[in-house]
Amino acid sequence: MPRVPDTTDSWIGLEDGPLAERVRRTVTHVSERTSDSTKLTELALRSAEQSPQPTAWYPPSVSSGQAGVTLLHLCAASAGLSSLDTAFGHIREAVAATSIEPLSGPGLFAGTSGLALTVAECVRLEPRFRPSLDRLHEQLANQVLDTDYPRVERAVSDLDYDLITGAAGVLAHLSSVEEPTDRMREAAERLLDYLIWLTGPARTPATPHRWLLTPEVYPPLPSYREKWPHGYLNLGLSHGMPGVAAALAVAWRAGLRRPGHRDAIDTLTTWIVAQPHSDEHGPVWSDGTGVSAEGAELAPSCAGDQLAWCYGTAGVAGALLTVAESLGDDSLRKVAVEAFEAVLERTAKTRPLSPTLCHGHAGLLMLCLELAPWSAAARAALPRLTEELLDYADPQRPLLFADQDEPGVLVDDPTLLTGAPGVALTLLATLSAERPGWFRLFLAR
């Protein structure tokens, strides 16, 4: 099937001027401080000591290793703020590290598909990385075909299907490969069949949907059982059904289609659009919809918006836009724009605690860039959000930007997802002449 054409070729960033120059200076500082792999390792050890919930540094990981730092230096080099030698040095070390600790899974943020995405970005600038990419893609296809994606109701984990680790993220990457091998196409079909099954009608009592997460698969945090004693339906872009809907949609657009595929997209999109409650600004999506002991969906208990990419209205708006663009759905695009414009109104009164991509201000700026071609409010907010993100910088911190997931707990994180490289990469996107390829990590397209 032919690819659906883009509804717009627009990409809107900052005009050149004092604010753009401030972005360049800031990105240069972060790039310089992340150029040396030994210093990165030292910073990773430091951040592990600072954080109450540290993430292990793993060089091949795009979210928490040198693969992610490579993306920063690739983009910085294109802007004349770093060198390709630095970027290629990081990716070579990331790939070499797999001989010591192999990539054990296909996941997007810490597995083979994420490393493959990064190497694919390198191939655009240096074709000699092509053999490494081909090997990674062969390994990725084999891993997917060897993975047991459980089709057991009330036993599904978000790790099985989500954008971060699960089937949706891997499918998003495979959908970007222009000439997949037969083995890669077979892997994509397996992922599609699993996600399509996930959206089918549940047969087990007290199970409203097959994607229900029960207490047995919760993280070891008491708050989950207290909030959702009988299970819940995840609404985060990172771990929930918005990410699945986005991945299914980009696969459809890429011509990777399976029986029941369009119905699955429609089922998820209809459900997601029906989930928010409202405040004075507009729709608000919570982190999840709880269920009763009988399996009935409960009204949302979250009064506020999380103002983040990972969970909350902004991330959902990004996912709905991905679906709308993939299907050419003007009405769904309108829903996405209105939802994000409500987020922008909320940011006029409050802003995230952290500057980072996952749960902080950089994630909002990324989504503002994504929505800007269709939203006058997003275009108007772009300079403000950029300035506010720059204001998080502290020259006394090793990487200028520190994560602050908990009030008062500052972590000098060298990773893409929750650290300064992701902040700098987002700032660079405001200067880009085109939509960055790394957006696929967070928005599936």
Q: What can you tell me about this protein's structure?
A:
There is one protein chain. The chain is mainly alpha-helical and 445 residues long. Helix content is 49%, strand content 4%. It contains 18 helices and six strands. It is globular and about 55 Å long. The two termini are 18 Å apart. Residues 1-8 have low confidence and may be disordered.
Short précis:
Helix content is 49%, strand content 4%. The chain is mainly α and 445 residues long.
Strand line-up across the major sheet? 1-4
**Can you give the mean pLDDT?**
95
The dominant shape is globular
Total of DSSP H or I helical runs spanning 4+ residues: 18
Helical fraction: 40-55%
Protein structure class? mainly alpha
What is the percentage of strand-forming residues?
under 5%
Q: Detail the poorly predicted runs.
A: 1-8
* Order of helical and strand elements: HHHHHHHHHHEHHEEEHHHHEEHH
Return Rg in Å: 20 Å
Determine the N-to-C terminus distance.
Answer: 18 Å
Count of distinct strands: 6
- Biggest beta sheet summary: 2 strands, antiparallel
Topology:
Blueprint (H helix, E strand, L loop, with lengths): L17 H16 L3 H14 L15 H13 L5 H13 L15 H12 L6 H17 L11 H4 L5 H8 L7 H17 L23 H6 L4 E3 L6 H13 L7 H13 L3 E2 L4 E2 L3 E3 L22 H15 L2 H18 L13 H11 L4 H15 L12 E4 L2 E3 L8 H10 L9 H5 L2
Antiparallel strand pairs: 1-4, 2-3, 5-6
Helix pairs in contact: 1-16, 1-17, 3-4, 3-5, 3-17, 4-5, 5-6, 5-8, 6-9, 8-9, 8-11, 9-12, 11-12, 11-13, 13-14, 13-15, 15-16, 15-17
